[in-house]
Amino acid sequence: MAEKQYLIMLDGDARKRHYHLSEAGRIIEFTVQLEIKIEDRWKEVVRYDCAHGYAHKDCYNKAGECRKIELRLSYEDALTMADDDLNEHWEIYRNRFSAGYFA
Question: pTM, whole model, 2 decimals?
Answer without folding.
Answer: 0.94
